[in-house]
Amino acid sequence: MKLPALETLRDIVRTAAHAELLPRFADVIRHVKHDGSMVTEADVAMQQRLKSDLARHWPEYDFLGEEMAGHEHEQLTGTTGKTLWCVDPLDGTSNFATGIPYFAVSLALLVDGRQELALVYDPVRDECFMARRGEGAWLNDIVLGAHEPIPPDAIRRCIAGVDFKRLAPLLAARLGAQPPYGSQRNFGASSLEWCWLADGRFHLYLHGGQKLWDYAGGSLILAEAGGHACTLEGEAVFSYGLAPRSVVAAATPALFSEWKAWIDRNRTPAQT
Q1: DSSP structure string for 58-75
Q2: Rounded to the nearest 5 degrees, what angle is found at the Cα of 258, between the Cα atoms of 182 and 181?
Q3: Which of 87, 126, 166, 205 pairs as cysteine with 249 (C-beta 3.0–4.6 A)?
Q4: Would you state the pLDDT for residue 1?
Q5: Sign of the four-CA dihedral 47, 53, 56, 60
Q6: Per CATH, domain 6-143 is 3.30.540.10
Q7: Residue from 202, 210, 185, 189 nearest 103 by CA
């Protein structure tokens, strides 16, 4: 099948974000959803705008958005064989609502339960990360993936993106007491963190549980940029379903091997 042009997709998302998100930045009423996460009128407006704009160009594709009802999520992911957009209209809602300039729009095209296209757009910096399966990844018009060679002890100088609150207490404590990396960050927008990892802005990544719309776009971008990821249990991160998935990732395969080995040694009690 002929897939949508990434350039067309970029224009749609960029136009929508500048119309629906930036005018509301740091100036919205917040509500708490049943799962404890935050939602604003900007999330809803952006989702409605994207659903309409994407349907106008590709009416044959289904649409799955984070702010849809749970039964709609279950219906759309209950069987493969669909072609659908998987969208987080505003990833980093808490940042957005409180004026922290770190949020993004995340979108992936899933065909028969597999990622084929991905786009993550940061409207504050006007940075658009894109990927097409088997063809590479880009930041605006720059190819991603040209990382410097990694020396053997590089992990000690790495910046790691670590979301502590979803990790098991033992692993979180060991990371806090004896981290293998040089410095740690947690920015609060999963899709954009995947992309910053793909661009080498940080080098390691660990997250205890992401939803499908959190990782569907970013994980393809990282993979096409030459990075590597799996769950804490060593499985592929992408799964065509709603269950949260843990993430262990790195910008290069060599860093990934060292990072995953350290995590495996430290996520269970020492044998006596």
Answers
A1: -TTSEEEETTS-HHHHHH
A2: 10
A3: 205
A4: 74
A5: negative
A6: yes
A7: 189
pLDDT at 85 over 70: yes
Q: For residues 33 and 206, which has the higher predicted lDDT (pLDDT)?
A: 206
- Paired residues of 205 in beta bridges: 161, 249
* pLDDT, tens only, 37-51: 667 899 999 999 999
Share of the chain above pLDDT 70, in %: 93
Q: Tokens 């069987």 label which residue?
A: 79
Give the ranges where 78-168 is alpha helix by DSSP (H). 93-98
CA dist 75 and 107 (Å) reads: 19
CA-only gyration radius of the chain, Å: 18
Virtual torsion, Cα 241, 244, 247, 251, nearest 10 deg: 50
The CATH fold of domain 154-266? D-Maltodextrin-Binding Protein; domain 2 (3.40.190)
Three-state secondary structure along 23-49? HHCCCCCEEECCCCCEEEHHHHHHHHH
CA dihedral (131, 139, 231, 65) positive or negative: negative
What global pTM score does this model have? 0.94
Cα four-point dihedral sign 24, 26, 27, 33: positive
Boundaries of every domain in the chain: 6-143, 154-266
Tokens of 70: 């749970």
For residue 223, CA distances in Å to 124, 160, 236, 262 come to 25, 18, 11, 21
Q: Are 204 and 255 in contact (CB under 8 A)?
A: yes
